[in-house]
Write a structure and sequence with these properties.
Layout lengths: L5 E7 L9 E6 L7 E11 L1 H9 L8 E2 L3 E9 L11 E5 L12 E5 L3 E3 L6 H6 L1 H14 L7 E4 L5 H12 L3 E6 L4 H6 L4 E4 L5 H4 L3 E6 L3 H7 L3 E9 L7 H9 L2 E4 L6 H12 L7 E6 L3 H8 L7 E5 L2
Parallel strand pairs: 9-10, 9-12, 10-11, 12-13, 13-14, 15-16
Antiparallel strand pairs: 1-2, 1-4, 3-5, 3-7, 3-16, 5-6, 6-8
The structure holds NADP nicotinamide-adenine-dinucleotide phosphate (NAP).
NADP nicotinamide-adenine-dinucleotide phosphate binds next to helix 1, helix 3, helix 4 and strand 10.
Length: 316
């Protein structure tokens, strides 16, 4: 139960399985200069949440509150914020990795990490989009420079990043090839995939050819073998940021490009995402919602690695 100065949040004091997540009461944060305080209405859950819960990742030892995706209402603005006023509906991604903390009733973040929530979508839909869409947008436009008519291969095309990457690649005019197990191919076609590939029954590195851009959401051998399906001058953008140098060495040997990247909070990207939503070109598939208090259940489901689309926490 929260009061005027406190809030409910999902915190942890030790690393471990979903059971380490507990509902806790914290002091409500105040926005610093150039920050906004957002009353969180919904917050996406991403693999980085369950990885940090289990390993500490970039954050090290707990205590901490996880969560980077936010959709909500501006409660207060810090000194210098001109873009928003209390009452504005906004969505965004808290700065990755150190700005975490959206799995709570309130979160603060730089005003520049947010943009206005398109009126046509609710907070659940908006909360599903920021981290995965910014990742896909930054990979496909800034790193790969996808152009109309190019052939783009998206691994795990039914997953959180993959299913928005498919829609963004289509909006850029690409021909999209996507991998998923066969049971998900109708879903892939419904979001715009031109050529679904069942990675469980065929070797994508044999079945796919002449690709300009690969979005690697798997890493390891998948990233390495993806280099072989490229045309000369093509690029694999991997969003698994840590791995062996063989990825770069093999790219050099083959005359192609290999890039590893981390998503970066940014209003320009969020505005591009909002614009695609408003044009009807981008929509998140929300596999399931959970009340904030059931965050551990969302982590346990996400941890299976089989989700289609996104999981979202709803904050009442
Ligand atoms: N660098 C960054 O900034 C950044 C940003 C976002 C995400 N990431 C990372 O990117 C990865 C993907 O994130 P996500 O949110 O998309 O995950 P996700 O939603 O949990 O992905 C689930 C999907 O992966 C598919 N899948 C699993 N193994 C596969 C394989 N070998 N080939 C093809 N599909 C496979 C599953 O489909 P099936 O059931 O058909 O197997 C499922 O639909 C995570 O490791 C995440 O941490 C990095």
């Amino acid at each position: 139960m929260s009061t005027e100065n406190t809030m409910r949040a999902i915190g942890q004091t030790v690393l471990g399985g979903p059971e380490v997540l507990k509902e806790i009461t914290l002091e409500r944060p105040s926005p610093r200069p150039n920050e906004i305080l957002v009353r969180v209405r919904a917050a996406g859950v991403n693999p980085t949440d369950w990885k940090h819960r289990a390993t500490g990742g970039f954050l090290g030892e707990p205590p901490f509150v996880l969560g980077w995706d936010v959709s909500g209402v501006v409660e207060a603005t810090g000194i210098g914020v001109a873009a928003f006023r209390p009452g504005d509906e906004v969505f965004g991604m808290l700065p990755y990795p150190f700005g975490h903390g959206s799995h709570a009733e309130y979160a603060t973040g730089p005003a520049r990490a947010f943009t206005r929530k398109p009126a046509g979508i609710d907070h659940v839909q908006a909360a599903a989009l920021p981290l995965v869409s910014l990742t896909a947008w930054q990979a496909l436009t800034e790193q790969a420079g996808v152009r109309p008519g190019q052939r783009v291969l998206i691994h795990a095309a039914a997953g959180g990043v993959g299913h928005v990457a498919v829609q963004i690649a289509k909006s850029l005019g690409a021909h999209v090839i996507g991998t998923a197990s066969a049971g998900k191919h109708d879903f892939l076609r419904s979001i715009g995939v031109d050529e679904p590939v069942d990675y469980t029954s065929v070797d994508f590195a044999e079945a796919v050819r002449d690709v300009d851009v690969v979005l690697d959401t798997i890493g390891g051998e998948t990233g390495l073998r993806s280099l072989r399906v490229l045309r000369p001058g093509g690029v694999v953008v991997s969003i698994l940021p840590v791995g062996s140098d063989a990825f770069y060495e093999e790219a050099e040997r083959l005359g192609v490009r290999a890039v590893r990247m981390l998503v970066d909070a940014d209003r320009t990207g969020m505005e591009a995402v909002a614009d695609l939503v408003e044009k009807g070109a981008l929509r998140a598939t929300v596999a399931r919602t959970f009340p904030l208090a059931d965050a551990a259940e969302a982590h346990a489901l996400g941890d299976t690695g089989r989700t289609t689309g996104k999981l979202v926490l709803v904050v009442d």
